[in-house]
């Protein structure tokens, strides 16, 4: 990991907080309660893994930071909306997120539902409204890419597969398919959107795509291990819920040791995909380490 | 109303059913249950008022029908998603829609939530993916327009204002503000998107905008009258719910007679906005009549 990685990370996390605070409607604007809930959901923390990936991929493609912060905000708003809806009683029914009460607990269910809905709309508004690419056609492709990643063949589809899998024993390929949708699609969109803010030849885009797929899966494997091993205090959300809800996870399918080995092997695949990029991809490599080597 | 209006209406309603059936992911594609719920929510009926407005406005602007059907589908998917979420137990808790069980009754709450989320994503995917305007910048503006209309400063915001208003006595201006968001924003987006699929000078766009605002409000006034007067069987959804839930409506604020008079005056304003458009706007005029003169 590069020596200045920690500084870069903290700088961008702080920058994203500023960008999101600026972009989200003020809590004084009507409807105030809805806007307060949207801000509560999207501000004040989180590791901002997806924005970090947008910036790191943008660095490979020589993209302007002003474009990257908009693309990063759009991806993060989709992520934030998905957390609000996932936490609802009819889904995971969770009361704690990032160490704070979830949105429906802090506000109410109806407001949480509408806040999630509105965060999704705002993500597409950002991606279409600000100039993000020299070529407007390319920017339309970026909107399409995020919409596909968020929708029924991406993140929301992954959630649906997850719902269907509760209480069932999944095979490893089935589990992988679920997570390629549920977490992988948006991680991949983050990397692709960052790169599309700049210029990169097709073969290099394909390598980034491979990197993103490996990192996306590794991210989920690590999440499953953390859920099984960490305490609620460390995690900032309710720990051990997967096992309690009888959800299939990498830990339930492979066991902890094998799951850790899989995460490390996916990390190696991700790094291999970046061979030949040289120093420009150092942030992406650091992020792969950051994501996989979170304190087990 | 033009003699062939009924034929035009039925033709387009049938065309929209075909377009939506083609555009929505097949129920055989994984995750099947989610895709089945999305199709259940968006297919099989409804008056398709917003798509009709897209086509009628497109006619004024000389737009190609292939573009209009995509823009119309995008607007209708946003409308369909909003109905699914509005019907959820934490919102209106309704069990009947278009004479059929609502999505969460037919499927389950989690699937309804995800189906609504995915319909919204799909709307933006359509609007960005298909070629809808000569100029890609203009198409990006169309995406922005729909995103704003759907989000916290548009439709979802109107729902939030609605929630806050239950049990409170609203003034007429407050009620109007709520409906300009809740119903008006998407009706306006339908008219604007239809026109943007073709070419229309700015002053004409402004006239269409005024037309759309009047029709949007008239639409809601008529809805309130119907809810107060019609039976559940005629309406295809639970009637009399507004009064039962102690919701402020145009009928509760103005009484039935005054509300009907307001609807008619808004219809006249809408028609006035189209003065000077000639025969090209006849479908829009017919639609204003169709919307306001629904059987009281």
Set out the fold topology.
Two copies of one chain form a homodimer.
Chain A: H1 5-23, H2 32-42, H3 49-60, H4 65-86, E1 96-97, E2 100-101, H5 103-106, H6 109-129, H7 136-150, H8 155-165, H9 172-196, H10 202-229, H11 232-235, H12 241-244, H13 250-254, H14 256-273, H15 282-292
Antiparallel strand pairs in A: 1-2
How many structural domains can be distinguished in the coordinates of chain A?
1
Broad shape of chain A: globular
* Portion of residues within helices of chain A: over 70%
CATH-assigned homologous superfamily of chain A:
Farnesyl Diphosphate Synthase
Distance between the termini of chain A: 18 Å
Q: What's the CATH architecture of chain A?
A: Orthogonal Bundle
Mean pLDDT across all residues of chain A, rounded?
93
- Biggest interface and residues each: A-B, 52 and 52 residues
**Helix count of chain A?**
15
Question: In percent, how much strand structure appears in the residues of chain A?
Answer: under 5%
- Kindly provide the name of the CATH class of chain A: Mainly Alpha
Could you explain the architecture of this structure?
Two copies of one chain form a homodimer. Chain A is mainly α and 296 residues long. Helix content of chain A is 71%, strand content 1%. Chain A is built from 15 helices and two strands. In chain A, α1 (5-23) packs across α4 and α10 (202-229) runs antiparallel to α14 (256-273). Chain A is globular, with a radius of gyration of 18 Å. Chain A starts with a helix and ends with a helix. The relative contact order of chain A is 0.13. Chains A and B meet through α2, α6, α7 and α8 of A and α2, α6, α7 and α8 of B.
């Amino acid at each position: 990991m590069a020596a200045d990685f920690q500084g870069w990370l903290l700088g961008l996390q702080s920058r994203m907080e500023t960008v999101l605070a600026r972009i989200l409607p003020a809590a004084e604007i009507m409807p105030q309660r809805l806007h307060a809930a949207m801000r509560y959901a999207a501000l004040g923390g989180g590791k901002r893994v997806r924005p970090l990936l947008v910036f790191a991929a943008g660095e490979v493609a020589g993209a302007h930071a002003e474009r990257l912060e908009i693309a990063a905000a759009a991806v993060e708003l989709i992520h934030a909306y998905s957390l609000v809806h996932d936490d609802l009683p009819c889904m995971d029914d969770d009361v704690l997120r990032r160490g704070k009460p979830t949105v429906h607990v802090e506000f109410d269910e109806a407001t949480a539902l509408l806040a999630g809905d509105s965060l999704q709309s705002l993500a597409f508004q950002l991606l279409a409204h600000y100039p993000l690419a020299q070529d407007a056609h390319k920017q339309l492709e970026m909107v399409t890419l995020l919409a596909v990643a968020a929708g029924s063949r991406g993140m929301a589809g992954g959630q649906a597969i997850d719902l269907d899998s509760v209480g069932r024993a999944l095979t490893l390929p089935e589990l992988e398919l679920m997570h390629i949708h549920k977490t992988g699609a948006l991680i991949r969109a983050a990397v692709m959107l960052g790169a599309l803010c700049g210029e990169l030849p097709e073969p290099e885009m394909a390598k980034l795509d491979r990197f993103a797929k490996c990192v996306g899966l590794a991210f989920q494997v690590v999440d499953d291990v953390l859920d099984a091993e960490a305490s609620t205090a460390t995690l900032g959300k309710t720990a051990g819920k997967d096992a309690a809800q009888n959800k299939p996870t990498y830990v339930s399918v492979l066991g902890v040791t094998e799951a850790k080995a899989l995460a490390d092997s996916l990390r190696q695949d991700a790094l291999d995909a970046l061979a030949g990029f040289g120093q420009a991809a150092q942030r992406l490599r650091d992020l792969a380490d950051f994501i996989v080597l979170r304190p087990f």
